[in-house]
Amino acid sequence: MAIALKSTGIRQVKNSLAKWLITLGGISVLFTLVLIFMYLLYVIKPIFESAEITKVTSFSIKNDQAVLATGLDELQELVYTIDGNGDINYYPLTSLKQKVDVNNESTRVFQQSLSENKLVQVIDAGTDHKLLLDELGNVSLVSPKFQSIYDSGSREVIPNITFPLGEDFIPVDEQGIGFTHLSFAMDDERAVFVGYTKDQRLIKTTLIAEDDFSYDPAYEIEYQQIELANNQVNNILLSPDLAMAFIRSEDQVLVFDLSDDMDVKLKATIIPQLAQNRANPMHLTSMALLSGGSSILLGDSDGIVSQWFEVATDNGREFKQVRTFNVSDSEAVSKIYTEQYRKSFYTITESGDVGSFYTTSEADLWGGNLTGNIPDSFVISPRADGLLMFNENNFQLFSVKNEHPEVTWKALWQEVWYEGYPEPEYIWQSTSGSDDFEGKFSLVPISFGTMKAALYAMLFAVPIALTAAIYTAYFMTPGLRKKVKPTIELMEALPTVILGFLAGLWLAPIVETNLPAIALLFILLPISVFVTAFVWHNLPKNIKNQIPETWAPIILVPVLILVAYISFSLSPLMETYFFGGDVRQFITNDLGIDFDQRNALVVGIAMGFAVIPTIFSMAEDAIFSVPKHLTSGSLALGATQWQTLIKVVLLTASPGIFSAIMMGLGRAVGETMIVLMATGNTPILDWSIFQGMRTLAANIAVEMPESEVGSSHYRILFLAAFVLFVFTFVFNTLAEFIRQRLREKYSSL
Amino acid sequence: MNKWFKSGSPWIWLSAGGVSLSLISVIGLLWLIASRGLSYFWPAEVYQFELLDQKGKASTVIGEIYDRESIPSKQLSHLELNLDPKQETVERLLVKTGNRELVSLDFRWILVPEITKQSTPEKLVVIERRTNGNFYGYIEEVILDGKVVSLEQMPVLLERVLEFQEEIEALQKVDIGAINYQLERLRLRERKYKLSGDYTAQKEQDISLKVAQLEAEYQTLEKSLLLLREKVSRDEIKMKAMDGQIVSINFADILKVSTNNQMNLFDKLGMFFSQIASFIVDDPREANTEGGVFPAIFGTVLMVLLMTVIVSPMGVIAAIYLHEYAGNNALTKLLRIAVINLAGVPSIVYGVFGLGFFVYMVGGSLDQIFYPETLPSPTFGTPGVMWSAITLAILTLPVVIVSTEEGLSRIPSAMRHGSLALGATKVETLWRIILPIASPAIMTGIILAIARAAGEVAPLMLVGVVKMAPNLPLDGNFPFLHLDRKFMHLGFHIYDVGFQSPNVEAARPLVYATALLLVTIIVALNMTAVSIRNKLREKYRMLEH
Question: Quick check: helix, strand or coil at residue A531?
């Protein structure tokens, strides 16, 4: 007794310790589920955040010359200015970045002279290119790039200035008069200038590379004059593919076709509808080319920016106004600046209000006043994560947090008008071979595909699973039920990868070559069951007594196999007589329906098989556990077996059957491998049974391994997973809730 | 008739039809996989077809019949065959002709009406090769070191080559593999020292000495490897293909030479079982489309074992909490909803979670802390067998919980009360009374979890499975179990070979065989679990009375 008492303390400690551990272990299950939920949300969250622009630092420089252009490197460590003297000066940023809102002064670290003559203008000419225009009207192209040097663990950014067209100034105007407006674009073979001279000539000058500009700046020069109806030019832009020149002439934009070297033709005229009925008429105030060069943005004095691009119409390709952005209610849009790689743009109004927008998703990302005026120079950093503004020898650097501007709720779930498309559409196209490709992330086609696959699977599975459950639970003898139920449930254990493989490589070709047989099966199978039942009904009594009616499923097995065999043997004959020898051709040519080998029919059958055991098992349980006294009562009152089943059993078990179907639907929605293998995985919006689909789950499986971590694509795939998670969560919780209620009801009966 | 309809009998029959259809589909599916899978191992007859096409050109085709089908003759009208106009369908055969170096496709369809003669000559030989697939043809001569020798010598020569091949393989995989592994570790150690800043001259000397030693060892091994390679490729065999061309095949390339047409039933049975055995123990060849699936079996088993180690304690503890400790409150209800939902969440979602959370977040942090010397190439921050096991452990957790809880709920409360009344604490009751009785139920849960995990593919595609793993996750190099390695998996093997391989037609039989293997494992596991559960139920029913 004494020994027992002595150990009680340790035993009690052990006991309570174990209790805590087990409680912790139990609650960790809940924790896991919450963790999954929260983690998915954590990854998704950034795509719905709007942009943030915060000031990093400001500093002044000492310079007595007018600064014509500025720029900075992609790591934001060095800035440069090009001044009227033709000098380029570099200033370090690194040491200043920590000191917010202090008016520092930065000292020059590097200087180089780019021109012997005074410069009058420096023109932005695409990625890393600046065009220097000197007082004589000659130009030089300079590329102030940067180079990172890694040495013993530290990194240093140094300037790297190159001259892609040679260091000599180029006489762009044959008559040497000088320009009021000039625009430039080049590729490896040609460099094109379009300019408006001081004596009101619109000229085009082409430099044709003798070899290739990427390594040899030698060229031949060619001058042309372009006819212009009204001598008014406000702005000139060239598309980066050298195909088009946009010339803003008062309230219209003339588009010239440059693809023919000999002859520059007027291709189109863009005349925006400006609100003219007010006291002061509206005008175009600014113009910019969107990244990629196929869209043009026009800002007007009413504070509206409109996006235009070429759209295929019945009359050929035409420029159309695709969407507008309301930048300001009262002020004119003074300047539009576009990002280099994304379809984003910044606007600035007279009072210095800055707005940030994304075209495709129509996102209004940010708005506010940063400097209080229109800066002399406004530079978007190469990685679009910073803004550099320069005004009166004072730099201001802002950081921009704007990683996923292309994703908005609207862009994910509504029709979006992409560049080059004739109309707004739902498109999922996440990657492509080319660099300037814009990802198209509409979740509509893949959500639609998920629903389509689930629907066809349920159409196939629900009738079979429910009838089988009814018979097994209500009519079958216990001995037979004991064997049949585990056999059907065994199907649930079959790996879906095997079902998918069989569906894709075995079933799909069979369905394709024997389409008439499949159609025939859907008609003949029920009919043959009725015929068998009728024949059995009319059999003499002594045979009926030997084989009881409860053996019906076994009797039907050979019948159904025979019917299937007959259907398949008749298939070629039907093909010959009804469909002109080839059903596929008949469907494509005569009916005009596209036919995929791996289509919704195949998925419906294969996924149906995967879902049957889920529905069967739960529905069978629900029907089987209907209290026996209910059925006995009904039968005793003279109802037939069938009447009892319909009016009593099924009615009582209906919540359970409903929850079984819910669970089946949940499984069909989340199934990955079968859809992945048995469909063509094309994200289309089409209910046709002969077409494939792409589902959320299959889409994740296909694209997740290739998506860049942290990119919009990666996060959208997480969103797809989250949608699946929430969807199945709702269905499962609902089904479980209903089942609990049913259990309580049964126990109270 | 009307009365019969009113009685509802036809509807009862219709619902019976549902049962029949389900049964037919289950059993039909299993039969389909079994028959297709097993026929892959059965040595097939090799046929020689003499063909005469509509233009009067004669040709010979040698090969195995793979498939036959009948198609409407109208679809062939463009061929202008001389057919009986009344004939509605034409039969055609899919023949595997092999000989990949001679013909572009190793399968071809031939139309039965074009066949003038069909025979199974006894001298026809099938040669299974390391590259380029099978070769079908007649042996012309056997050449030993440049001299022609008699055919009887062939088995001896083949035996000799196979022995050498085994030596080569051991040398390459074990010895040279170990040297490469050690060299890599030395390189990493050197980097680690450099990063931490205590790379002394002494250490540098040590490392360079070891490297030199290993490289010397490598040189000798390489020499003996070259010598063996030379020995292996001494002999060759001259074969006559179906179009009369003579092709010489080096013995180094030959795996097996068989004359299927000479075999009797017992020979075939012997070969059947030896083929099954080599399928299970061999490595894959030719981008997984030939050879065995050993690494896939190994990977599946290892991953599932790791998963079991993780999921069993977690699942059992959670079930004990739910059944023995949890009160009837909102938290318990929430927990039950969590269990149900964990079971119902699509598996791909677990994959996404595993990739983001375990691989990139946890794994990435582990790399930063423990493996800075290998960065930027990740160690645990990349999909691998450990992350797969953990992900699948979460996925199968509800299976273990539900099954264990069912077992616990079947234990009569009298047993608990008895134990408690005798003075045992709750933990002692659990540990000594409840858990031993519930152990078969726990076993059932674990087996079901294993079966589920063995067949799951979608999440693994994101967290660790690869098409071809160069090294097994378990080998003779310290620390023996490499949890960071990627692995091969039977289910993914099916997907990959069946859908991603360049020659799907040729690979399909192998996919059926793999599918059969996987189905056998899973069905066996499930049946074991179900039978344990049924026995358990009977036992408890007896306990209650």
Answer: helix
Distance of CA B368 to the CA centre of its chain: 34
Q: How far apart (Å, rounded) are the C-alpha atoms in residues B457 and A497?
A: 7
Please name the residue of chain A whose CA is at the shortest distance from the CA of residue B492: A497
Distance of CA A615 to CAs A503, A610, B252, B332, Å?
20, 10, 56, 26
In what side-by-side order are the strands of the sheet with A179-186? A179-186, A190-197, A202-209, A219-226
In terms of phi and psi (left: phi > 0; alpha: psi -120 to 50; beta: otherwise), the region of A149 is beta
The one-letter code for the residue type at A180 is T
Q: Do A335 and A378 meet the contact criterion of CB atoms below 8 Å apart?
A: yes
For domain A272-374+407-438, say whether CATH 2.130.10.10 is its number.
yes
Strands A333-338 and A316-326: unpaired
**What are the boundaries of each domain within chain B?**
43-146+234-276, 295-544
Instruction: Supply A594's token pair.
Output: 């596209």
Residue corresponding to tokens 């924790």: A31
Q: Is A606 in contact with A677 (CB distance < 8 Å)?
A: no
Which of A40, A495, A728 is the closest to B346 by Cβ? A728
Predicted TM-score of the model (pTM): 0.89
* Listed residue (B19, B11, B26) closest to A556, CA to CA: B19
Please state whether beta strands A103-105 and A52-60 pair in parallel, antiparallel, or not at all (unpaired): parallel
Cα A426 from chain centroid (whole Å): 10
**Domain boundary assignment for chain A:** 2-48, 272-374+407-438, 444-746
Integer Cα distance of B294 and B509 in angstroms: 17
Token reading at A279:
């006291």
Is B31 near chain A, with CB under 8 Å?
no
Structure token digits, residue B218: 């490598």
Q: What's the residue count for chain A?
A: 749
Q: Which residues pair with A110 in a beta bridge?
A: A90
Q: A444-746: which CATH architecture? A: Orthogonal Bundle (1.10)
The yes/no answer on whether domain B295-544 falls in CATH 1.10.3720.10 is yes
- When CB atoms are compared, the residue of A39, A494, A704 closest to B462 is A704
Residues sharing a CB contact under 8 Å with residue A652, sequence separation 6 or more, in sequence order: A626, A630
Q: Token pair of B5, please? A: 């309809």
State pLDDT tens for residues A161-209: 888 888 888 888 888 788 888 888 888 888 888 888 888 888 888 888 8
Q: Which residues contact A732 (CB under 8 A, 6 or more apart)?
A: A662, A663, A666, B340, B341, B343, B344
Give dist(CA A71, CA A166) in Å, integer.
21
Structure token digits, residue B137? 């043809």
Contacts of B348 in chain A (CB under 8 A): 670, 672, 697, 700-701, 721, 724
DSSP string, B204-261: HHHHHHHHHHHHHHHHHHHHHHHHHHHHHTT-EEEEE-TTS-EEEEEGGGEEEEE-GG
Region B490-519 average pLDDT: 88
* Positions of chain A with pLDDT under 50: 1-3
Cβ contacts of A659 on chain B, cutoff 8 Å:
none
Q: Which of residues 651-690 of A touch B (CB under 8 A)?
A: 663, 666-667, 669-673, 676-677
ipTM of predicted assembly, 2 dp: 0.90
Q: Assess contact for A194 and A204: CB atoms under 8 A.
A: yes
Sign of the Cα pseudo-torsion (A675, A678, A681, A684, in order): negative
Q: Is the pLDDT of residue B184 over 70?
A: yes
pLDDT for A280 equals 67
Contact A673 B495 (CB under 8 A): yes
Instruction: Tell me which residue has tokens 């002279």.
Output: A113
Reduce the secondary structure of A309-374 to three states and give it as a string.
EEEEECCEEEEEEEEEEECCCCCCEEEEEECCCCCEEEEEECCCEEEEEECCCCEEEEEEECCCCC
